[in-house]
Amino acid sequence: MDGLSFDNPLFATYAIAATILILKAAAMAWLVVFRMIRENGGFRSPEDTRKTLANPNPHPDQLAPNERVERLRRIQLNDLESLPYFFVAGFLWILTEPSLVLAQWLFYGYVLTRLAHFVAYLTAQIHDIRALLWTPGSLILIYMAASTLVTALF
Q1: Among 4, 9, 20, 70, which is most buried by a count of CB atoms within 10 Å?
Q2: Alpha-carbon gap, residue 50 to 42, rounded angstroms
Q3: pLDDT tens digits, residue range 85-126?
Q4: Would residue 125 be called left, alpha or beta, if left means φ above 0 and alpha means ψ between -120 and 50 degrees?
Q5: What is the mean pLDDT of the chain?
Q6: For residues 102 and 10, is the Cβ–Cβ distance under 8 A?
């Protein structure tokens, strides 16, 4: 179990990358809420249009789709679709004891691609740019998963 401690630089590298991604994903929920407040709309549930201290002047239009809110929701959904693969694949991969330098390149490279993808999505870049930023992260996941599988089988 010594390998799964912060004294192990390989595990510490994984933990740093995973923690950055967790914080980024948690921040997305807050960004959605702040954007809904700022836009005074983009609400999803009918009960959110009741009069409260936080919503003193409710109106039915608050339930209408709001592109600025929905953009953040799409980014959040993309994280929810992508990050679990990294958490599992990365954890299993460190059990194969790869080189520290390779792990740093792949883990931090994945984090950078996710952050760059976030910026591209937030600034409404075309799909080609978002795909270009998403692809290296996807290839990193595939490499880690395949490498783990090969190690486990042989």
Answers
A1: 20
A2: 14
A3: 999 999 999 999 999 999 999 999 999 999 999 999 999 999
A4: beta
A5: 95
A6: no
**With pLDDT > 90 as the criterion, what percentage of the chain qualifies?**
92
Measured distance CA(154)–CA(151) in Å, rounded? 5
Q: How many CB atoms lie within 10 A of CB 16?
A: 15
Torsion of CA 130, 68, 70, 18, to 10 degrees: 50
Instruction: Tally Cβ neighbours within 10 Å of residue 134.
Output: 19
Enumerate long-range contacts of 67-71, CB under 8 Å, 24 or more apart: 68/35, 68/39, 68/42, 69/32, 69/35, 69/36, 69/39, 69/41, 69/42, 70/42, 71/121, 71/122, 71/124
Are 94 and 11 contacting, i.e. CB atoms less than 8 angstroms apart? Answer: yes
What pLDDT was estimated at residue 5?
Answer: 87
- In tens, the pLDDT along 120-144 reads 999 999 999 999 999 999 999 999 9
Q: Enter the pTM of the model.
A: 0.90
Q: 122: how many CB neighbours lie within 10 A of its CB?
A: 12
136 backbone dihedrals φ, ψ, rounded to 5°: -60, -40
